[in-house]
Amino acid sequence: MRKLTYFIATTIDGFIAGPGDEFGFMMSILDDAYVSALVESYPDTVSARGREAVGLGPDNRDFDTVLMGRNTYEPGLSAGMTSPYPHLRQYVVSKSLTTSPDPAVTVFSGDVVELVRGLKQEEGKGIWLCGGASLAGQLRDEIDEIVVKVNPFVAGKGIPLFAAEFAPERYDLKGTRSFGNGVVMITYAKRTA
Fold first, then answer.
1. Does an H or E element contain 174, and which?
2. Distance between CA 13 and CA 130 in Å, rounded?
3. pLDDT per residue as tens digits for the range 160-171
4. What is the DSSP string of 46-76?
5. Whole-prediction pTM value?
6. pLDDT tens for residues 96-134?
7. DSSP character for 93?
8. CATH number attached to the domain at 4-190
9. What are the angstrom distances between the C-alpha of 29 and each of 24, 156, 187?
10. How far apart (Å, rounded) are the C-alpha atoms in residues 105 and 67?
11. Which end of the chain is more exposed for a tag (fewer CB within 10 A), N or C?
12. Domains in the chain: boundaries
């Protein structure tokens, strides 16, 4: 069975963006060593423009599908990237976006849990949950792995990692990796027993 991985950047205090969807401040600390490590560790999460810049081909290693909410999709769309991950099967989960601006992107407004359960039953590589908080909250029970890139910022307020009801759930630590720019990447797996 395929697994769903929530691979996301956050602040120290658990926000994936500011209250107005600001995330550029987290991009401000990107350096060559960190970007190289991300490309090496999770090449399938590099967007089309980034793939060209670092010389990645069309083949996927870990993921073949990406899910994102409308707010996650919007910055790329505003910059003219209607298909940010053409090497992946792309789903944008949205009630407000009714038609896809690109034939390679499926806009989905139905039951996302049912969608993910169906995707997990298919043959293929993993499924990447790109963001955001509402979508992660809806899919919380379906998430098998969380990879959190904790950025060295405290935001104070913003969009949380998960928008969901209070229900503590235990995950097991699979690994950590720290970088010279202050980012710590932490990988957790859902505890099954």
1. strand 171-178
2. 19
3. 999 999 999 999
4. S-HHHHHHHT--S--SSEEEEEEEHHHHHHH
5. 0.95
6. 998 999 999 999 999 999 999 999 999 999 999 998 999
7. E
8. 3.40.430.10
9. 10, 19, 21
10. 10
11. C
12. 4-190
